[in-house]
Amino acid sequence: MTFKQIWESGRAVLNGWLSVPAGFATELMARQGWDSLTVDMQHGLIEYGDAVRMLTAITTTGVIPMVRVPWFEPGIVMKSIDAGALGVICPMINSRAEAEAFVSCLRYAPRGRRSYGPIRAALIHGADYAQRANDMVTGFAMIETRAALEAIDDIVSLPELDAVYIGPSDLALSLGEAPRFDPVDSPVHDAILHILARAKHHGKRAAVHTGSAAYARKMVDAGFDLVTVGSDAAFIAQGASAAVQAFHGGT
Amino acid sequence: MTFKQIWESGRAVLNGWLSVPAGFATELMARQGWDSLTVDMQHGLIEYGDAVRMLTAITTTGVIPMVRVPWFEPGIVMKSIDAGALGVICPMINSRAEAEAFVSCLRYAPRGRRSYGPIRAALIHGADYAQRANDMVTGFAMIETRAALEAIDDIVSLPELDAVYIGPSDLALSLGEAPRFDPVDSPVHDAILHILARAKHHGKRAAVHTGSAAYARKMVDAGFDLVTVGSDAAFIAQGASAAVQAFHGGT
Amino acid sequence: MTFKQIWESGRAVLNGWLSVPAGFATELMARQGWDSLTVDMQHGLIEYGDAVRMLTAITTTGVIPMVRVPWFEPGIVMKSIDAGALGVICPMINSRAEAEAFVSCLRYAPRGRRSYGPIRAALIHGADYAQRANDMVTGFAMIETRAALEAIDDIVSLPELDAVYIGPSDLALSLGEAPRFDPVDSPVHDAILHILARAKHHGKRAAVHTGSAAYARKMVDAGFDLVTVGSDAAFIAQGASAAVQAFHGGT
Amino acid sequence: MTFKQIWESGRAVLNGWLSVPAGFATELMARQGWDSLTVDMQHGLIEYGDAVRMLTAITTTGVIPMVRVPWFEPGIVMKSIDAGALGVICPMINSRAEAEAFVSCLRYAPRGRRSYGPIRAALIHGADYAQRANDMVTGFAMIETRAALEAIDDIVSLPELDAVYIGPSDLALSLGEAPRFDPVDSPVHDAILHILARAKHHGKRAAVHTGSAAYARKMVDAGFDLVTVGSDAAFIAQGASAAVQAFHGGT
Amino acid sequence: MTFKQIWESGRAVLNGWLSVPAGFATELMARQGWDSLTVDMQHGLIEYGDAVRMLTAITTTGVIPMVRVPWFEPGIVMKSIDAGALGVICPMINSRAEAEAFVSCLRYAPRGRRSYGPIRAALIHGADYAQRANDMVTGFAMIETRAALEAIDDIVSLPELDAVYIGPSDLALSLGEAPRFDPVDSPVHDAILHILARAKHHGKRAAVHTGSAAYARKMVDAGFDLVTVGSDAAFIAQGASAAVQAFHGGT
Amino acid sequence: MTFKQIWESGRAVLNGWLSVPAGFATELMARQGWDSLTVDMQHGLIEYGDAVRMLTAITTTGVIPMVRVPWFEPGIVMKSIDAGALGVICPMINSRAEAEAFVSCLRYAPRGRRSYGPIRAALIHGADYAQRANDMVTGFAMIETRAALEAIDDIVSLPELDAVYIGPSDLALSLGEAPRFDPVDSPVHDAILHILARAKHHGKRAAVHTGSAAYARKMVDAGFDLVTVGSDAAFIAQGASAAVQAFHGGT
């Protein structure tokens, strides 16, 4: 299954988030009904070796494997898709040039500059992976600064770009607000809808990071193609905290 | 802090459970208010190297570190306390001889046969650890079979034994019932209260594994000295499942 | 898929062998057509944490996961099946008592003494795993000494024992010959066929470790239910050696 | 505790150095009286996953955690502080532009471009970490080339820069001398004092890597705010070599 | 032993390839007769910590250790040689400027900008490593795009560059052909020979990645100084596939 | 090189001790002049996977690799020598039966019950390893209790036993003294010399753990064949503590 296949079927993708570097935590997540799972190599405590083990854990199911890279750098982008990721989220894309530098790493020549060597991808996605890879892999450029907002049409009009991914916390910081999930009635909220509209105008997919299932549902209703809810780390902290409080009579 | 110090202060210990082999998952757990955390080397997917990393993560807080060993074997019992665990839960203690074999591993001569070399324990618990270790380390013998039930007085009257730990699932299986947490009105429930009573009669501490904060609270009210609620693995699975269902309107 | 399901379909199992502690090596093996793969924790350089990662790699395919434990010890036997192994090979079973001690670890009460907590097994094999586990898990007692040979009827008549696994190298050493794979016209060869016959007489499955596909095929024709051929480590050494020699004109 | 708090108390920081990728080596170091410890991801044999485990080991004490990144690259700088480092040493800062690129990664908007997601930092440094992070995190620009020396006023006058860190070995190489610790009466020694003077002139902190406690003490007396002495790797090599020589009568 | 010493002895280097992140797989490879082994951090599933363990495994023999870095970035190039690699292959060098940026990382001042701190290199290559390193370490610039082909004379005339390494798959993609090893009678084949000729014209060494010992031998006869054949991953897949097929009568 | 070869050359073995689970720490130790190094799986924080990496690090030199197992258990003893250890120290051997159970694990039939599969040992010690292994591998039974002292003649007269290893700390505890290295004028000191005398009387080698090079030298002069001095962990702690104190003027 790929992102494009789900989207072509007419529905949005429910994405889960992985910040804990342990294959077993990933397997627990992968059996709960997510469409895709993202290994967060940016803010999660995860290095490439962990990411490979987590992508392997995802492959025990049919869930779509995705990564967020720490920052734009061609080496880690290409290593991630060679390891089997079918989606890549790239932080802090602030201009068309940065978007182009990013997406060119996802495509083999002549459409890009991805180096050939899909060592695990070809093993798990089929012998014809190399022929199909340019269309199987989906790149998400993160729109999360005022600069990106101002360049939004330049960015989303880039032909090889598949999708944008909105990071509301950084966007809030950049717009002078406190970092926060699930904004309503605020400049950040307006910016989110504006990015969505411009992406749609140029025929691109749009994704957003959320802090609750309810907000995620609302964003899908607003037109988003992918929504992220929760994370393994958050579920541990919230579940433990709730149990401790319940024991002490706090619930 | 040690188990004995909490007990002497007149309250019960709230213990959390660790099945995910990742220091960060442990740190997330360790900041939620538990009195102690147990690294489960029996049913968790955890080997000794993982356990050391998890015990290190626990030491970033004041939470009491505990392990459950995979099975009684002197090497792993002693390695766990040398690594700094202040409590050891040992599965399947079915006779006084087994209890004695276990607890002798927790005490230096002449009270036992623990080999000297508290490499991390002395580093983190203080230069006088070796002098105090025999009283700082608490051993929990798991009572979880019909055989153990029948030998309960022999077991709990063993002077060096500190405490018993009841595993309701195995006890249920052994008594011919389905494995289950939080039994009520059943032979397993009766057995749990009987073990508690016999332990108390011999001046020993009693602990029980539970499936909910409410049942745990009830067990403390019944006289238990330590109750375990939840686990990192369960919090991930439950939190993720709830989020996915909420998104799909299932809540 | 389980061993029993393949056997009931009337064919033998082709088993591959894993000695390299790397999930990617396991994934490479798992996509080559084996029915089952065995993580060798005895002579391979593999500890439990590696084994979990390798079992996870196997689960990315439909190949049946098996382990060989280092030696009989209840802790590691039960940890392996809790981690999802559907077969366990136990070295050096030399008597009915040893066979009984081993197989009792594979069965929940009342058929055995397996402790309850199938943490990964229940996740990957289905919510009803615990109900079905006693019949899903297959135990192989290694017959590899003169003592075992002499006690063969005592061993294979044990009701809960599923199968025997013949280690020709150790059997050869024990019978005073040099350790060697694929014996013909020798006391070891005779012993292999004798063990096979006694196992079949008692309705048990029989497996044998071989050094070549041709010998393995012959053993299946002789009646064996599972044959092991090659290993990841051997394929690396043989492939590399052949390439180096071919380059230097040695082929 | 932060660097700034120690400095405001009027004393210099004694920093230790970590090159061995093992949490236990770090814990041994962390209990010997250092004010801060630096995980060297540049010349040490340490990748990000190791660094996280070592930062966790440091957190078992009150020692200030610091990292040296391999080279300036925004991803690894931000991942290090998200993991809880309170100081970052960045190699080879040779111009004001490079200094600015570096320090902007340490500050949230509007003071910089650090991406929001302090996953471990917020866990261990308190719920208000994000509000305080811009002032808690200290950036050290390494001054270690002739080019940097020539641009020293441009660099140290950068407002957001906290401190410089002098690498005497590279500075020596760049000035045409042999790499060496603890220079006296040499152009490198003069350069070190010149850098110190220019940093102080612009109100910035200055740090220097040394090879002995005596030289470190001298540098503190000269006005340095942080001095590094020794490393886990050096202590192993020196201690072992001394023991072997003593055994053979060499002492 | 270094690359230069083999070349000065008048023969070509036979290089093996490592994609499996396991020290034991590396040790198996290292005992089969290769002159050098390359840890592939680009397309292999290998991070820096794995690379260190694999370089350690190589050091158990006299085989020359080499790495391929994921992409040009000074940090990973320098970390690799600090860890003891005597050769570095850098992907996608498309201009003289890129070649210069790369090779400057391999040389201490004044010949380059390598930072001083050869932590493992000095341990294993001798106390005089730092004096000899500029000549011991060999840099291979990958020539694998049409752009590189067009700039070939600019690149190979760079004085500090030691050698070029041809990646036939990427070169084929860049020239509009399917990625493939061992080309004959094709533009890629012509390009390979052209690169070889220009390298030789400028007194530089030339290397090529091949898919078979026969083609590698042919390339040595054509004048190449280093040829790569096979990989640990390929030997596992090919060996396992052949065994399975042989068992099923497919051979 | 083996222990026996050194002893036959007429000199004692200087053994170093490894408690830090990091290959690099081991490589640092291995280059300082020790005859042998022991990976301590008992009191060190080391699991089997760490031990394999440390044994690999030792193999980069000619130093003799040894392990101390956590406790007597056939699986870990055999795994250690399959991984290439040429010496095994086994804790707490208190009777001839225990000694026999231990040493039988070190010998192939008919001299013992070691299972065949020297996967790394045969790779690194030569193709004829299996033929020579019974004489290459040296077993050290730890004598460290009053019970062992009382059974000393029974133990050291066991033909297959190679050597005893005295643990002064545990011996002191068992004799009612405080655990301490380097005893003089005490019952422990007398016991050490008595064990030495009985071992020599039966033609066996004797080893002792010491806390200083001076005491070690004295023990060699007294007739000991192997002495252990220091450890990687101790060198870190002592070196760091000395540097910190020197900085603060404490020296």
From TrEMBL, chains A, B, C, D, E, F:
Single GO term (MF): aldehyde-lyase activity
Record-listed E.C. numbers: 4.1.2.-
Similarity field: Belongs to the HpcH/HpaI aldolase family.
Official protein name in the record: Aldolase
The HpcH/HpaI aldolase/citrate lyase domain, residue ranges: 27-233
Keywords noted in UniProt: Lyase, Metal-binding
Domain of life the protein comes from: Bacteria
Gene Ontology CC terms: cytoplasm
Record carries keyword Coiled coil: no
First-tier enzyme category under EC: lyase
Protein source organism: Acidiphilium multivorum (strain DSM 11245 / JCM 8867 / NBRC 100883 / AIU 301)
